[in-house]
Amino acid sequence: xxxxxxxxxxxxxxxxxxxxxxxxxxxxxxxxxxxxxxxxxxxxxxxxxxxxxxxxxxxxxxxxxxxxxxxxxxxxxxxxxxxxxxxxxxxxxxxxxxxxxxxxxxxxxxxxxxxxxxxxxxxxxxxxxxxxxxxxxxxxxxxxxxxxxxxxxxxxxxxxxxxxxxxxxxxxxxxxxxxxxxxxxxxxxxxxxxxxxxxxxxxxxxxxxxxxxxxxxxxxxxxxxxxxxxxxxxxxxxxxxxxxxxxxxxxxxxxxxxxxxxxxxxxxxxxxxxxxxxxxxxxxxxxxxxxxxxxxxxxxxxxxxxxxxxxxxxxxxxxxxxxxxxxxxxxxxxxxxxxxxxxxxxxxxxxxxxxxxxxxxxxxxxxxxxxxxxxxxxxxxxxxxx
Length: 386
What we know:
This protein starts with 16 loop residues before the first helix and ends with a helix. 46% of the residues lie in helices and 13% in strands. The strands form two sheets. Strands 1-4-5-8 form a four-stranded mixed beta sheet, covered by helices on one side. The protein has a four-stranded antiparallel beta sheet with strand order 2-3-7-6, with no helix packed on it. The longest helix is centred in the C-terminal third of the chain and has 29 residues, at 280-308. The chain folds into three domains: 14-127, Acyl-CoA dehydrogenase/oxidase, N-terminal domain (Butyryl-Coa Dehydrogenase, subunit A, domain 1); 131-240, Beta Barrel (Butyryl-CoA Dehydrogenase, subunit A, domain 2); 243-382, Butyryl-CoA Dehydrogenase, subunit A, domain 3 (Up-down Bundle). It has helices spanning 17-30, 36-41, 48-56, 75-88, 96-109, 112-123, 240-252, 256-259, 262-274, 280-308, 314-339, 350-361, 372-382, and strands spanning 129-132, 148-152, 155-162, 173-179, 192-198, 204-209, 218-229, 233-234. Helix 9 (262-274) packs parallel to helix 11 (314-339) and helix 11 crosses helix 13.
């Protein structure tokens, strides 16, 4: 039977090894004082100074044209940099969404004025973006959103709510999806449009959602008659569903979808190996974990190649994210069993802090970027089961 999914192999050229070593050398020094708690946040950790440093080194907007502040390097060079940053648990949240999806969206569909204004700021690590998609009353059905943009003189008025918006309380801009015509009950996938929103606009209220760790990187965002100018529209009016769906292929295919817990596995292997002997069962479980990681990496690289070729592998990206979520969510328990560690956090112990943070946080991994149920619906459609 022919597979409905396409995962053509893609290799990283050997000549990129020097770039990998350059990033590793930088991170070896930069991470020397990072706590386990900070490393656990990885790409959701918000550190503007660190993002500006990456921008100065040319590691944000790597593939973009130089005229927009980019560096015209290949997608695989970017992949090398991202892999190393995630492997170290670097705090990337201040530029992550702008570099991964908002910038590429503007590059493809933005006006020339939008590109000239926003892309250089993102590439310098100076503009933090959040994504306004999910809504409180829509459940997992993104297309049933009710937040509305109404045309007025000079622009649009936005009203409604967004939820699960990562780092909205500290971001500068949002790309939000709003209904510009029709209704969710009649033609829910039609009449949607995307807008570029200044988070300092009058009428925006951000309500942080405190999680089990006592922190709040998820937020609910309220829009009360918020005005945005006419040039805030991104792409074509009414084409927001297709645009947002294309964005999600970028979001669901990146290494963060299987590497969020990698620093924990890496940190745990040192004390395990220092014991001198690893029993056969432990060796087998470590081998299984590494083998699964390699498979997920190969899938991710394949999707990167497809995106670079202009394809939109939404089903492949959904499959990778679902498998990656499951892999990541098993990692804290695997490490606990391998190290025989108690469920108590020891302050100052990097492995203990990392283990504690991720144990509390991994349940959210199957929510961000699309719930597991929605992803499996997309996968089922690819298999011809729906």
